[in-house]
Amino acid sequence: MRTFAPEDRLTRTNELLSTELDHETVLMSINAGAYYGLAGVARCIWEKLENPTSFAELVDCLVREYCVSRDLCASDLQKFLAEIEQEGLLRVE
Amino acid sequence: MGPVSNSPTGTPEAGKYLSTKAKVSLNAYQAYGLSIHTDLICPELLPFPHSSHEPDVTITMLGEEATLLSSLPERSYEVRPGCFQLDVRRVARYRVEEGRRILIQAHASASPEKVRLFLLGSAMSALLYQRGLLPLHGSAVETRWGGMIFVGPQGSGKSTLAAEFHSHGYRLLSDDVCAVESTPNGLRILPALAQFRLCADAYQKLGASPEAYFDVDKFAVSMGKQYCPHPVPLKAVHILSYQSAEGPRFEVLRGLERVRRLFENLYRPQFLIGQRTQNDLVCLAGLIAQRTTLAAVSRRRDRTAAADLVKFLEVAWAECFGTSFNAGEEFDAHFRS
Questions:
Q1: Is the pLDDT assigned to residue B218 strictly greater than 80?
Q2: Taking a C-beta distance cutoff of 8 angstroms, is the pair A84, A90 a contact?
């Protein structure tokens, strides 16, 4: 499985349009006809990805905002980022 | 003729033409809440009394000598911020600028009807996108609950249903394309063309009228007095489809589905990407999904006639939005002045 290094710089890809719906952020790739709904923590991560952020910074932010252990947070974040990278939503530098 | 400015972004030929032809008598119309001045005669549009005010939109026919468009080698259209170009082979070239101007260079052999078909369809939809209005591919009806939009794939019966509402005495805001705008007072449907575009069977139902003419594969019929010329608050968007189950169904949509369905039913969605307004328009779609009701309306093709569907919807709306008549009257009072 894909793993991200602490220093990887992560940001959103540009091709997506987004809007707010209920308590979700809706992302859409009109050309691909794909739609994504992000709620809760996922939405919070997406907001942080507006500007390039390192994996380690993301973990720091999340353990500060949510009641979660650093290890669990890092492993969940690995999974989530791998998923959105596969969908072409994430740029890694 | 004055000197032609050589601005790097403008089109000198088009500018030259506009300045020399400004004295040609202009026809004044309105559509989508916009005042339109044009040297074309457009029976599809509602005439609008001339005023000394600047019109919202000007539509100008250019002569054959003008070089309207930069070449479009691979695609038949091009979307750039503030400038849309479309080349319809053997019909016309269209250039739509800043939501304010449409320039047309018609092919010598093209009929005026065909030139207007792409003007009022594709070129107008690009203009609406430029102005931050969301064009949906569907018809719109004024009801006591507010404005109801009906969208759906080709052949899903949008126009036939609109014609049926018309024969039940409802006023229509549009057939084929309707536009939604966001105002400080909420979302509104803007009235579009004052005519139906129907396939032959629906046309016969309305009864032939002398001003009807054959327009590609559809007939055009004026809505007459039952055209609603003012904007109406948007209450619900209905997605029409046929299904195999027995009776008609009215199902309120939830979640992400709503935005997806709205985008599936945009008019000429390929003209949205690349507009300066694209992000605002996506947010407008989110607002529509959030503030109004989106419902999937399905029925069996051979079981539910259009007249029965009108009755079914009246009952569904009463259940969904209440039976009070006051709401509609309030809207009327606000928007008729």
A1: no
A2: yes
What confidence score (pLDDT) does residue A31 get?
66
* Mean pLDDT computed over B191-213: 55
A2 part of a folded domain: no
CB-CB contact of B187 with B156 (8 Å): no
Q: A37: nearest CA in chain B?
A: B256
User: In the predicted model, what is the mean pLDDT of chain B?
Assistant: 81
Query: Which pLDDT does position B192 carry in this prediction?
Result: 86
Using the Cβ of B187 and the Cβ atoms of chain A, whether some distance falls under 8 Å is answered with: no
DSSP state of B5: P
Helices (H), B176-305: 200-206, 257-264, 278-291
Residue A46 has pLDDT above 60, yes or no: yes
Residue A34 near chain B (CB below 8 Å):
no
Please indicate whether, in this complex, the C-beta atoms of B282 and A18 are within 8 angstroms of each other.
yes
The whole-number average pLDDT for the span A23-36 is: 81
Q: For residue A88, give both structure tokens.
A: 């072409």
**A3 and A78 Cβ atoms separated by less than 8 Å:** yes
User: Which CATH architecture is the domain B134-335 placed in?
Assistant: 3-Layer(aba) Sandwich (3.40)
Q: Quote the CA–CA distance of B215 and B213 in Å, as a whole number.
A: 6
Is B290's Cβ below 8 Å from some Cβ in A?
yes
C-alpha–C-alpha distance, residues B94 and B66, integer Å: 12
Give per-residue burial for B18-47: e unless 16+ CB within 10 Å, then b: beeeeeeebbbbbbbbbbbbbebebbbbbe
Task: Tell me if A43 is assigned to some domain.
Answer: yes
Report the alpha-carbon distance of residue B165 to residue B311 in Å, rounded.
10
ipTM associated with this complex: 0.70
Distances (CA, A) of A31 to A59, A67, B19: 32, 38, 40
Give me the mean pLDDT over the A67-77 stretch: 95
Dihedral angle, C-alpha A78, A79, A80, A82, nearest 10 °? 80
Query: Could you give the angle at the alpha carbon of B238 between the alpha carbons of B235 and B243, nearest 5°?
Result: 160
Q: Tally the domains of chain A.
A: 1
Confirm or reject contact between B282 and chain A (CB < 8 A).
yes
CB pairs under 8 A between A and B: 43
pTM: 0.79
Sheet with A34-38, side-by-side order of all strands: A17-21, A24-29, A34-38
Q: Which of B214, B196, B211 is nearest to B158 (CA)?
A: B196
**Structural domain containing residue A13:** 9-88
